[in-house]
C-alpha cells in the first residue's frame, strides 16, 4: 500500500510504503495554531522523500514545548515532524493525498478545544496527554499511546 503526501503548492512530496500506525487529534492551542491538529504516526522505515526535502523548514518553539514543527518554506503547509530523528513520528493528516487506512484513535487536550469545534466521532477524549504505555526504547515521538 503506497500512500502519497504533499504540501499545498506541491514543492514537498513524500510517500509511505506502509499505513500509518495510528491517527489522533490534538486540540492544544499550539497544535491548532501551527495547523497540526490531526496527525498520523508513521514508521521511519516506511517514509520516503519524493521531492522537496530542501523546501522543509523546521520551527523549534520555546520551552516547555520540546517538539519541532515542520512546514513548506514556499506555501507554509504544516507537515508535522518529518525531520525528527525518531523511529516513528507524526505527519499532519492534511498532507496525505489519499485515505491512510486508519481512523482517529483519540482526542487530546480537549480542555483547550475552542467552543466552536464539536467532536463528532466516538474516539476517546483526554483533557491533556493520554497516559502513555511503557516503551522498551524511548523515542522522541509521542507514539506510545494506548
Automatic annotation (TrEMBL):
The keyword Cell cycle does not apply. One of its GO terms (molecular function) is metal ion binding. Gene3D superfamilies: glutathione-dependent formaldehyde- activating enzyme (gfa). Residues 3-118 form the CENP-V/GFA domain. InterPro entries: CENP-V/GFA, Mss4-like_sf. It comes from the Bacteria. PROSITE patterns: CENP_V_GFA. Pfam families: GFA (PF04828). Keywords: Lyase, Metal-binding, Zinc. SUPFAM superfamilies: Mss4-like. Belongs to the Gfa family. This is GFA family protein. It comes from Phenylobacterium glaciei. The lineage of its organism: Bacteria, Pseudomonadati, Pseudomonadota, Alphaproteobacteria, Caulobacterales.
Amino acid at each position: 500500500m503506497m500512500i502519497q503526501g504533499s504540501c499545498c503548492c506541491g514543492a514537498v512530496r513524500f510517500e509511505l510504503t506502509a499505513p500509518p500506525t495510528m491517527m489522533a487529534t490534538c486540540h492544544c492551542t499550539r497544535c491548532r495554531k501551527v495547523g497540526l491538529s490531526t496527525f498520523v504516526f508513521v514508521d521511519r522505515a516506511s517514509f520516503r522523500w519524493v521531492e522537496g526535502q530542501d523546501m522543509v523548514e523546521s520551527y523549534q518553539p520555546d520551552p516547555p514545548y520540546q517538539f519541532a514543527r515542520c512546514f513548506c518554506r514556499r506555501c507554509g503547509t504544516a507537515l508535522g515532524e518529518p525531520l525528527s530523528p525518531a523511529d516513528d513520528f507524526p505527519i499532519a493528516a492534511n498532507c496525505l493525498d489519499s485515505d491512510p487506512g486508519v481512523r482517529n484513535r483519540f482526542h487530546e487536550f480537549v480542555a483547550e478545544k475552542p467552543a466552536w469545534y464539536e467532536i463528532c466521532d466516538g474516539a476517546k477524549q483526554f483533557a491533556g496527554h493520554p497516559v502513555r504505555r511503557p516503551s522498551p526504547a524511548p523515542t522522541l515521538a509521542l507514539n506510545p499511546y494506548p
